[in-house]
Amino acid sequence: MDPTAVFAWRRLTRAVVYAVVVAIPLAMLAFLVRTKYDPLVTLDQDLIFAATDYTRGHPRFRSFVETWEAISQPWVMFLFLGLPVSLYVWFGKHLRTRAWWALATMAAGWGIAGVLKLLVRRARPEIDDPIAQHAGFSFPSGHATNNAIVVTVVVLLIWPLVGTGVRRLLVGLGAVWVIVTCADRLYAGAHFLSDVTAGVLLGCGLTAASYAGYLGWRPPTPTDSTTKGSD
Fold first, then answer.
1. Are the beta carbons of 29 and 192 closer than 8 angstroms?
2. Residue 210: is it exposed, middle or buried by C-beta count within 10 angstroms (0-12/13-18/19+)?
3. Is 60 left (phi over 0), alpha (psi -120 to 50) or beta?
4. Other C-beta atoms within 10 Å of 190: how many?
5. CB-based contacts of 215, cutoff 8 Å, min separation 6
6. Which of 17, 153, 165, 167 is least crowded, fewest Cβ atoms below 10 Å from its Cβ?
């Protein structure tokens, strides 16, 4: 068999394995939500009521929640973090296929999250005296999904370009950002715990599967159609 085809098959296999590992718990969670599994529903409701009660009782914290909701909007994350870093990697470091991978992954994640919302069709939390009005379906959380995707993509994008210390800092900052975003969705009354959990699973899992499929890929050139290794 052609070595290039063997290498491509291995990359595809890696990507599928990663995708299946993430898809199984995500599908199970979606099933429990769709069938309104009582222990999960009770946990979700108890947490959302407690979180929103705390937000209403603390005006300064409520201002923080509303501000974080705005700055962590999916389009904000893409426009002010994902896109600039991708363009820097493309034009500043001349790693075009790496930048294309990042842009394609972020776009795919946005679309897949939207499709899942339509499939599960979970209503938003119903709360007396809500913190804010939130339209659309609830599962998975779009904020959690897209923040997890953008943060993970950015870390992987620049991973080979920085040293160990910076890598650890990026992972730490990224994890804190995603956790705060997930908590914000609960305190804002916008999503249940299972919604943001599904969002993080989808966001990080999709990015990992996509990167596993990308890693080692390089488009063939007229002078070397068998060259391996991503840029």
1. no
2. buried
3. alpha
4. 28
5. 11, 14, 230
6. 165
Structure tokens at 166: 């910076």
DSSP H helices, 72-187, are 74-77, 83-87, 96-120, 142-158, 164-187
Q: Please give the pLDDT value at position 101.
A: 94
Which amino acid is located at 167 in the chain? R
Amino acid identity, position 193? L
- Per the listing, tokens 């999916």 go with 74
164 has a pLDDT exceeding 70? yes
Query: Which of 158, 225, 194, 175 is CA-nearest to residue 28?
Result: 194
C-alpha distance across the termini of the chain, in Å:
25
For the chain, the C-alpha Rg in angstroms (whole number) is: 20
